[in-house]
Specification:
The protein is α+β, with helices and mostly antiparallel strands. It has one domain. It has 4 helices and 8 strands, in the order βαβββαβαββαβ. Strands 1, 2, 3, 4, 5, 6, 7 and 8 form an 8-stranded antiparallel sheet that branches. A hairpin with a 3-residue loop joins strand 2 and strand 3 (37-41). The radius of gyration is 16 Å and the shape is globular. 24% of the residues are buried.
Length: 165
């Protein structure tokens, strides 16, 4: 697990909400504080899609970020900045498995439930923290190290300035 503080909020917000940069993630949860507090549960209600042509769209437990990004953007935009927001994102499962396999991780991708990115904005600064969720106890820290390194590389590739805390 690592903590990264964003040093250029305008560019970060543009990449997060107005571009496809973060579309490699699923949205687990969003909490946005403006004039009201809005909570978006990204969990897919599979019953909603039963007996429909969209049934195959429910392959994930959570909705892809790209499908909810516009809603979150609409809740945040306005004359005043939000008081706060919190996003819990998960790297898409096939991307997580590919990353761990490519890096020759000593833990099988099947043992990793999710590679998580938490984004917290407190009204002044944004803090990103990485986390790894496992299906069972795993003594190895290698998946964490791989995910931390990959997240830093992702931010650098997107031109998002940050400081490691």
């Amino acid at each position: 697990m690592t903590a990264l503080q964003i040093t250029s909020m305008k560019h970060f917000m543009s990449r997060l909400l107005a571009s496809e940069s973060f579309d490699i993630f699923l949205l687990e949860e969003a909490v946005i504080g403006t004039a009201n507090t809005f909570t978006v549960d990204g969990r897919i209600n599979k019953d909603f899609f039963r007996q429909s042509e969209e049934a195959e769209e429910t392959a994930f437990e959570f909705r892809p970020w790209k499908e909810l990004r516009g809603l979150c953007f609409d809740l945040i935009k306005g004359k005043r900045p939000p008081l706060f927001f919190r996003f819990t994102l998960q790297l898409m499962p096939e991307r997580a498995a590919a990353l761990l396999t490519r890096e020759n991780c000593d833990v099988s991708p099947e043992q990793v439930k999710a590679l998580v990115l938490n984004i917290r904005y407190d009204g002044e600064k944004a803090l990103l923290t990485t986390a790894t969720s496992f299906l069972t106890f795993v003594p190895s820290k290698e998946p964490d190290v791989i995910w931390d390194r990959a997240m830093k590389q992702f931010l650098e590739k997107e031109g998002i300035a940050f400081e490691v805390l």
